[in-house]
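Worked example 2:
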Amino acid sequence: MTSTPLTIVAKIGTSSITNEAGTIDRAPIKKLCAEVAALRAAGNQVVIVTSGAIAAGLPELGLENERHRTDSQTLQAVATVGQCALIGVYREVLQRHDLVAGQVLLVPLDFVIRAQYVHAGTTLQRLLELGVVPVVNENDAVADDEIRWGDNDRIAALVANLVKADLLVLLTDTPGVYTDDPRRNPDAALLEEITDIDDRIANTSHSAGTKRGSGGMLSKLTAARVASRSGVTTLIAAADRPNILPDAITHFSAQQSASEQSVTAPIGTFIPASAIRMSARKLWIGFAVSAEGQIVVDDGARKALEAGKSLLAVGAKSVQGNFDAGAPVEIITESGDVFAKGLARHPSREIQIPQDLKAEAVSTPNILVHANDLVLLTD
């Protein structure tokens, strides 16, 4: 393990910490916490992002066989009971390693409202300074279907940005990303590194999560892309692989130093940090908030935006949705491809699209999205 202290965010999903019956299995949590303790003993800082509140709550209420017949409001109530049980397990197991667990519950609104986004980062940083192991989960009790993400992959990526992590480890029930679905294609090969998450890679990873989980490989690749944009390397690996967290640090450190002393056997799929890193604000605009509308632009406008220019009304073809000034909007091509996102300068009702006017006839350019408030979503 490296002698240089690192900050690691380790996310583990429901499918990795539950048994076939769908209830919490303490053994994977014990394994994870033991590896976290090893990292901490070496001077590293670690944040755990965990799912499993509903799975932990169902048996507490005698509903372990009723999940698929239970309404969403009941499941949210179950989550309140399960979160207590889940954090209790983490607290108990971490205490055996002389570590203190700190519960942090987040919802998308904590990332939508920038003041809360910054505050969450400050709180997490302070917990780490105090020697606490933050245990983060989505707050299922208050996050309804309209405002919840449903899996913790994106939360983990955003938390990695908040704590300025070096490495994000997404622990799952498969060894990593394959060239094809290994369940259907026995010749599918593990990809040890992905430098560009293109459409081909995404299309081979469209599998949904397991019946006990809500995410899937595509969700993890999306999270890895978010992390990469904020300067964080991601590893997607199997949660049950022995010493996965210590080995992840060894591999990561070897890659950073171009060392040849890395463990030869692959441990999962690495997605390296992007050479061009977004600021926290632009990461927030691009990935933390949901779009409230869309602006359709022509090819000329797209080229201008890709060259770092602002979006002007002369390049817009139409506006879709109702939104206020300052609202996040997607910027799409006429064929429907989303390639950028930004904060609207004007409410949709006030935007005038000069479709019948030539650019030179517009005396005062109307900035719809300023370059400082715009993020390109394509590499």
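Residues 206-214, 357-364 have pLDDT under 50 and may be disordered. DSSP finds twelve helices and 14 strands in the chain.
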